[in-house]
Amino acid sequence: ARKLGRDTWCHYTGDLGAAVSERMSISTDLQNAVQDNQLTLHYQPVVDGWTGAIVGYEALMRWYHPSHGFIPPNRFIPMAEESGQIVELTQWALDCAARAATRMNQGLPHDIYVAVNISTLVFRRTDFVERVTDVLKRHNIPARWLEIEITESMLLDDFASAIEKLRELGALGVRIALDDFGTGYSSLNYLKRLPIHKIKLDRSFVNDIVEDPADAAIARAVLAVAGLLKLTVIVEGVETERQFAFLKRLRFTQFQGYLFAKPLPLETVLASLLAASGY
Ligand code: C2E
Ligand code: CA
Ligand code: CA
Ligand code: CA
């Protein structure tokens, strides 16, 4: 029998389910997405709820596919993690965020940071700290302008080397936030050993916080522990005035959510910063 040539294999799609072949095509397309400028970062503010000041922005990836249209990060990030493409995407995001931070901080009276989400796979690479150092150097920006958001999952495998990396990043002056806090399992046990600066209270605790005494109790406990450990808390996913008022009564200070702003394109952010600065 004829050996299956590369061509035959490439064109064989017959038995693939629609979902699988769509996945494959999206993953292939992701390879061109960076070069073709289909990817962009949007920026969602983190606000001080007591002064109204914007303290920083979280960078969130957006992909406008030429034929599939908008593809949400919850769909393409996991694929990029599986294929390893997330490494390249994150490098691009760090560069983009550094450039954005430079523009945001032009003529502002106080510093504004841009936070980039870092996948476990990327964090675990031996050259991660070097990559971050390199971005800061190339863009010639102070380390405090660039923050990173990590999740608990990257601490599970090799806790000791994760801690070491976090220390190195901290020594550079890069601040680190633990994302989606409260959704893992051993949080409080290792929190005290983590050289991080912030935790982001997951929005699943915020949804029903006004009605659900259990959520309110958890939020209170997180705030108390964070206070003892001198960690800043950012509350994620604040959507209503009632949630905001309730959270302020619990004495939270930093907030993020649709109530304040959705993730926005850089140009929109720059225009609003300019307007707020009074020029
Ligand atoms: P995340 O890091 O937890 O980001 C917060 C998500 O909540 C964002 O969704 C944001 O748009 C959304 N959000 C913000 N405020 C509200 C609110 O008030 N209500 C509700 N319902 N949602 C709100 P998005 O942009 O779709 O991103 C989803 C996830 O994709 C992110 O969750 C993050 O895990 C991942 N992601 C996004 N960009 C990147 C990236 O550049 N790199 C990596 N590794 N992951 C990314
Ligand atoms: Ca995040
Ligand atoms: Ca989050
Ligand atoms: Ca998340």
Automatic annotation (TrEMBL):
Domain of life per record: Bacteria
Domain (EAL) ranges: 23-277
The organism of origin for this protein: Orrella marina
Full protein name: EAL domain-containing protein
